[in-house]
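U., I forgot to send this yesterday:
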Amino acid sequence: MKGHCCCGNSSGNSISGSKNNCKKDFIHISDYSSEELEKIISLAEEMKRNPHQYRESLKGKSLGMIFSKNSTRTRISFEVGIFQLGGMGLYFGANDLQLSRGETVHDTGKVLARYLDGIMIRTFAHNDVTELAKYASIPVINGLTDYNHPCQAMADIMTIKEKFGTLKGLKLAYVGDGNNVVRSLAHACIKFGLDVSIVTPKNYAMEEGFIVSAQQLANSHHKTKVLVTDDIKKGVDGANVVYTDTFTSMGQEAERERRLRDLKDYQVNDQVMSYANRNAIFMHCLPCHRGEEVTASVIDGPQSAIFDEAENRLHAQKAIMYMLMK
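Result:
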């Protein structure tokens, strides 16, 4: 696998999580080839079908879980996941480590690598994750930053494949705020052969550099299409998957009222779902706010796949941990 490599070897030949060998991290979807990502999804599917076969696969391994941001799905899915693989998870809240008192990420990474076999971190600043990966000689998994959310994207792809039996040729339409979730989701769609439509108001659009890089990636991967628009009907037309996220992410609470005003016309409701294919599913990374980014009739309706999607965080992350830490 590609990803970050502590020994300077970018060939991707080793996936060992050993502290004495070249290690890999899971920080960006774009760090991995389509073939590598497909192997992770296939492994996640196998683990979901036959969990007992993997219950001692990480026996004796320990995963440190650093949370600067609160979490429901990320904490539970990683903690249960490492347990189901035979390992142990250690939870560290925002004030549990000396990071909160000024110890550097450099020193923290060096020390944790002497005790643990892997680190998962969910935090605000993306640089904290990349710096931790740089100095820790054990695998680092990005559980979420303000920049991206790669583990969520892998669970999303797994869910879409379950629902449709295939991925290539499908279209996913993301509607709402251009944020960290769509950044990873768009890259994942392109890598797996889905067309992707990003529908946001202009002042909440993805940065130009990301759009250009996504379109370049699409041209080189399966010739997929990337559409960026503020026109909901155009963006959702013919979609197999309609996806949204909360309008106000953690850390943006002071902007809540303004965001609700600016994004109210981008709510996913029955009218928006009618623009998609008849067999389209609705997805949301959760937590949701019914009546804001999505109506109850959609998120609780027959097209909703949100709880299957939430469950698949467990299976996708088990596969990621296995591939990095085995």
